[in-house]
Predict the structure.
Amino acid sequence: MLRYKVRKLFYSGDTDGSVTTYGSKRWIMNLNWDVTTAWNPWMTSEQVAGYVEKYDGMFDFVTVKGVGHMSPQWARKPVLQMINNFVKDQPY
């Protein structure tokens, strides 16, 4: 199992009507993994870019504020920062 071997990032635009943040949270809750870092904001250019919650099993759930499932197209700077920080294992 890859739970503790591979870091995982799942992100969701918080206005997505197709793949809702609520639905994603319910799916994650069904994993029954403990929260290691509670829901808190992450910033881009001193503005809230979304929220992040970390789970046992090296799993990060990140929302992107104000966009849907086309987050990379409509929120390029925050999404690029999110991905770069994940790859570099730095705080969002």
Observations:
- The CA atoms of residues 75 and 89 lie 21 Å apart.
- The chain has a mean pLDDT of 94.
- The helical segments are 21-29, 71-74, 76-87.
- Strands lie at 8-13, 35-44, 47-55, 59-64.
